[in-house]
Structures are given as structure tokens and as C-alpha cells.
Amino acid sequence: MIVVRGGTGKPVSSQKLADYFEARTDIDGYLYLGYPIIGTIEGGYPIDALFLSDQHGAIIFHLIEGIYDNTINISDIQDENYTKLESKLKQHNDLNKKKGLAVQLNVATFASAWIGRSDIKSEYPVLVTEDDLTGFLNATKWDDNQTYQKLISVIQSITTIRNRNKRGYVKKTDSKGAKLKKLEESIANLDRQQSTAVIETVEGVQRIRGLAGSGKTIVLALKVAYLHAKNPDWHIAVTFNSRSLKNQLKHFITLFTLEHTNEEPDWNKIDIIHAWGSPSIRGIYYELCLKHNIEYFDFKTAELMAKSYGKGFDVACEKAYNEIESFQQYYDVVLVDEAQDFSPYFLRLCYQILSQPKRLVYAYDELQNISNKQMPSPEELFGLDINEKPLVSLHNTPGKPKQDIVLDVCYRNSKPILATAHALGFGIYRKKGLIQMFDRHQLWQDVGYKVKDGKLADGESVTLSRDEKSSPGFLEEHSTIDDLITFKTFNNDAEQIAYLIAEIEKNVTEDELKLDDIMVIHPEPYTAKRAVGTIREELFSKGINSNLAGVTTTPDEFFKDNAVVFTQIYRAKGNEASMVYIINAQECFDAVNITQKRNMLFTALTRSKAWVRVLGYGQNMQALQQEFEHVKNNNFELKFTYPTAAEREKLSIVNRDMTAQKRKKTASEIQSANVLLQSLINGEIHKEDLPDDIREKLIQELL
Are residues 604 and 676 in the same domain? Predict the structure, then answer.
């Protein structure tokens, strides 16, 4: 039984109803508190609680707080509840049966403090005790429950996503277009963790961790729409690093708000806003500088100030944070997507501009970190108060909205693609050994892996695999393994280009894929424009249109109808396509900054929601392909010896949870810049373990 706690304003009756259903282990289903909000001509209509089950259908619970009150018109309230939800369900043909609903729909009042006022057999039932609830459920059986999954999809608003890609043009029964049509129809409902992440709102900070493809961006868009419908006076901001996410977020927030309120979002209350910003583009940092009358730094100036490429925004945010003595609070909620791309100081700025109780939601997947940043613990991320106590600590307490949520099911990537991405990203089968590793063993299980053999412990051999729950079978059953994921090595770039052009032409003319089903990713951001120019010209000569994201489109656009999208890796983040081509993949095999390069490859692989082609040339590509063959030969399981704590110190650690005190101690043991540099080169310490002041001194010594 899944209980999802939204806000009802009726805490006592909500808690008692939740306690009852959580104790009913014999029932499968959902109990939503404070959800759904139904869009009507009068605006959003909130339902106190809704129970969904394939055994009992849909039951609306009207909740009453406090002692008996004979002035409450229960019949009118129940009738209105019933009519509103019935009207919503009847809009979907699959939920209709002749002139009525194909769903068993009932409504009851639950008034837990009305002692001796039960009336469960009435036309307008009033339930008071647990026995009343049990008796009412026993009397509401749903036998013809074939529409149950569709019912959940409608309640969760997921039908609005599924209906956006129409494929009526598909003629062949076995083409990639036909397979894609079926695949898109299979992704029907939110899972337990996604539902929790959307609806449960913490009076404080909430963290959402999830794999690529686990639905983080969709969850955040749904959450914005839900909070906006529930609290129309709140000023909400959703911010991000990849500008190409803006239109995607706006599209989904609009769809979901229409579901909840039957009205367009009030864009005076919702800001879809870039993290940095400029005089021509709204941004969290830029507007904060204006409001607090401090100096704003653009990209070029910030990078010069940082003296390290890619660190400019971090330094600018740190300077702003330290310079502002008294922060203005002008948001009620801030949601941060792609939080792995930001320094702690940006998240601290977001925290400071929030009114109490500081509702900040940050979502991330650290393996998509292609900037070599480390995600600190919440205690370190947000700092200490005046009493030297952490401002933020996250705990999941039974019966309360969850503060820390892990999305462990991947709905984009099939098991072969995701396991390959993890194997190559971590260097599981790399001849030279591992590249990076989770610091805590449990994180492998958090992201959906199960121990098939061995032991998940330091120094122990272990075999990890993904099961049907964490990697649903329908994501891979539509095609053979060799079609799902292919690595190809060519002698030179010309051969690679010829193959790519021929395959894209085949996708369009034979496979019944749309042009915007296809994404071509170049991992190197600085040379992508020049590298893909010849390819785009050749495709155009064959009548195939294409765009280079952020160059031939606006920075806020990624896909355009009737055009293949070419992109460098930074712009690809947060987006997905059915057919993904990764070109020049040899650049990700080995490098001085190998962790960053492998994370680029991981991110590129996980853009695919159906098929992926990894292309490259030369010896490095051949070696990368051999690494993939090891993954494939091991049935896409991860077999390795878990590094000990001492061995992990020489790796790049994912989710390193090192306190500031330990970092200070580590640095203080090394007295000179020369010794420090040698220790970094030897892998005895890591740059991310150094405090900012020591890192700055090292930079000064080397300049």
C-alpha cells in the first residue's frame, strides 16, 4: 500500500486515514492525501483524499477535523466531490462504459472525531472508526477492473505526456517507428517514489536523487504545477543549468497546470529561470545581484577572476554569498534541476532568498556531472548556523513527507544501455582499473542494482545486476541486444561520417523514425560545431534537415520539428531521443581528465530511450569497444572487487561525504605547494578534498 502525503489542511484525519491504509498490507493501491486537484471551469477543485485500488476502484474521502458539527452539509459535499471526479474521468474514452463509467467510483466522509456518529450504510456514508473503514471497503468491490492502470495514469496526469507524440503515420508493424509507438504507450504511470517526490512537500529542504531517465525533470514540472494549484499565491522558481531545458519545463508545467486548474499557469507567480542570467536573460544570480546592489560578473569576467576554466560561476556565487550581509526573501519555493552542476554557494544563495520555512527542492544525478564537481552532504552543502549547527539535515520520518527521495527505476534506458553506461563510466572492465566509485556501498542498491553474487563490501568480489523492477523489461524487449546498443570502430573520420549519414537516411526512409527522434552527440563542446558541419551539409543534400542546438537554434531551444538535432554534450544534458548517435567516442576512452570524459560518455549514452550507436575511430575507439564487449559478455552485469577505503582514496569518489574538518586535516599535513602538487599527481589526495583557501594558494604558486 502506497501512501502519498500532500497538504490537506486536515492533519488529524489525514494521519488517521494514512495509518489505517499503511496497516492494510493485504491491499495494493495508492492513497493520495491532498490530491488530486481537478481542473474545472471555476478553477482548481481539491480532493481531500483519494484511494485507488484494483480491488475497490476509486474512493474519494471527504475529511472532517474536530468534533461533530451538524451544520456541515455532507450530502452536498459528497455529491460535488463525486461529480467533479466523474467529470474528469469521463473525458477519457478508455474509462467509459456505454453511458457510465468503467470505473467503480464511490465517496465517503471520514470524521475520526465524531464518536458514535457512524453511518456506513447511508447513501452518504460517514465513517468514524477503523471498523467503519473496513466495512465500507468490504462493501465496495471492483470486479471488472481492466481499466485500473488507465485510471492511475489519468489521476497522475501522465496521459498528458503520453499523448504528445502522435505516430499515426506509422504503416509497418515491425519498424522502429512502430516499436517506438508501443514503447511510449507502455510508460503509463508514476512509480511510488516519483509520486512521493511530486506530491509530498517538506517544510524545509528536500533532496531528490535519481538516475538519468528516472524522471527527475518530469517530477519537478509536476511538482511545480501541483504546488501552484495548491498555493496560487506562492512565488515559485525552478532553475537549471542547461538552457535547453527551459522550453521543456514550460511545456510540462503548462500541461500539468491545465490538468489541475483548467487554466494557464500564472507566469507572474512561476519563474522558469536560468541559474546565471545576464542583462538580456533572467537568472537567479543576475537578479540577486540587482536586488542586493552588488557587482554582477558575466561569464568572461568570472572566468578570469576564477583563473580556472569552468569555475567562474562558482567563484561569482561565492563572492555574492560572502558579500551580502542581509538577504531579501522573495521566493516561497525554489526547485533546482541538475544540482550536480552547481557549487554549494549557488544552492546557498537559493536557500537564502527563500522565505521561511525555506522550501528548497534540489534534484541531481552525480554521474551526469561533467564538470568534475563533487556533491557534498546536505550538512556541508548549506553550512552552519550561528550556533555552529548544520542549517540542513535530511531525515525520512515515518508518517511524514520524505525529505530525501531516491528515484531508483529508470524509464528511459534499457538495462543493456544503462549497465553499459555505468560500466564504462566507472571503468568496471577497464584494463587499467577503476576510475571512480561510490564511497558508500548502499548507493549501488539505491540506484537500482541488486547483489547477484559475492558481497557488497570493501575488498570483496561482487556481481551487481538490474532486475525487472529497476529496469522494466519492456524497455529492451522490442529489439535485439545488438540493435539496442552498438559500438563501431572505423579506420578514420571519413568512414565514420559515411556510416552515420547512411544510417540516418535509413532511419528516416525505412525505419519510420521522425527527424526529431534522432540526436547526434559530439562529446567535445569546443570542436563540435566544426566537426559536424560536413555531416549536416551532406544530410541537407539528401533532403534531411538538421539543427545544431544553441547555434542554429536559440539557446533555449533543443529540438525542432522535422530536424535531426546535433549537439555537444553540455547541451544534450536533460534531453532524450529515441535514436542516439555518439560520434568521436574515442575521445572519451583515456585522457588526463578521464573522470570528466567518462562522465561525458555516461551522459551521452543515457540520452537514449530506445537505441544507441557509439561511433569512433583509431586505437582508443578499438579499446573502448573491447571494454564494451566485456560488459556484453558478462550479460550486462557489473563484476568487480569493491575497492577498500585506502584504494578509494586514489579514485575519483562519487558522492564523497568528507567533512570540512577532515579536508582541513588532510591539507594541513602537507606543508608546501610542491609536496601538495606531488601528492595530487600521485593520487594520494584529491583536489576536491582541499579547502578553498588551500586550493587558491596552490593556484597562485603554479601561475
Answer: no
Q: What is the mean pLDDT of the chain?
A: 87
Q: Are residues 45 and 105 in the same domain?
A: yes
Measuring CA to CA, which residue among 90, 225, 192 is closest to residue 147? 90
CA distance 606 to 5: 31
405 forms beta bridges with 208
Same domain, 356 and 241: yes
| Contact indicator for 399, 19 with CB cutoff of 8 Å | yes
For residue 652, being part of any structural domain is answered with: no
SS3 percent helix, strand, coil of the chain, rounded to 5, is 40, 20, 40
In a domain, 580, yes or no: yes
Grid coordinates of 44: 482548481
Domain count, the chain: 4
126 alpha carbon, distance to own chain's centre: 41
542 found inside a domain: yes
Whether 308 has a pLDDT exceeding 80, the answer reads: no
Q: Which three cell numbers stand for residue 124?
A: 452518504
CATH number at residue 115: 3.40.1350
**pTM for this model (two decimals):** 0.76
Task: Give pLDDT, residue 161.
Answer: 58
Through-space distance between the first and last CA atoms of the chain, rounded to whole angstroms: 61
Contact 494, 619 (CB under 8 A): no
Per DSSP, 92 falls in state S
Q: Which of residues 665 and 149 earns the better pLDDT score? A: 149
> Measuring CA to CA, how many Å separate 202 from each of 231, 376, 403, 590?
14, 20, 6, 43
Q: C-alpha dihedral over 80, 84, 85, 86, to 10 degrees?
A: 90
φ, ψ of residue 155 in degrees (nearest 5) = -60, -35
Note whether residue 181 is domain-resident.
no
Q: Measure the CA–CA gap between 78 and 593, rounded to whole angstroms.
A: 63
Does residue 110 sit in the same domain as residue 84? yes
Residue 70: which residues within 8 A CB-CB, separation 6 or more? none
- Are 422 and 450 within one domain? yes
| In the block, residue with C-alpha cell 560572502 | 322
* 106 vs 57: CA distance, rounded Å: 8
- Is residue 662 domain-shared with residue 619, that is, in the same domain? no
Overall average pLDDT of the 300-315 stretch? 87
Q: Are residues 134 and 243 in the same domain?
A: no
Cβ neighbors of 47 (< 8 A, separation 6 or more) are 32, 35, 36, 37, 38, 60, 81, 84, 85
Domain identity same for 630 and 665 = no
Q: Is the bond preceding residue 36 a cis peptide, omega within 30 degrees?
A: yes
Range of the domain at 49: 2-155
Query: Where does 233-334 have alpha helices with state H?
Result: 245-261, 284-292, 299-306, 312-323
Give 216-231 pLDDT, tens digit per residue.
888 999 999 999 999 9
| CA distance linking residue 322 with residue 13, whole number of Å | 46
CATH number at residue 426: 3.40.50.300
Q: What is the pLDDT of residues 84-118, one digit of tens each?
A: 999 999 998 989 998 889 999 999 999 999 999 99
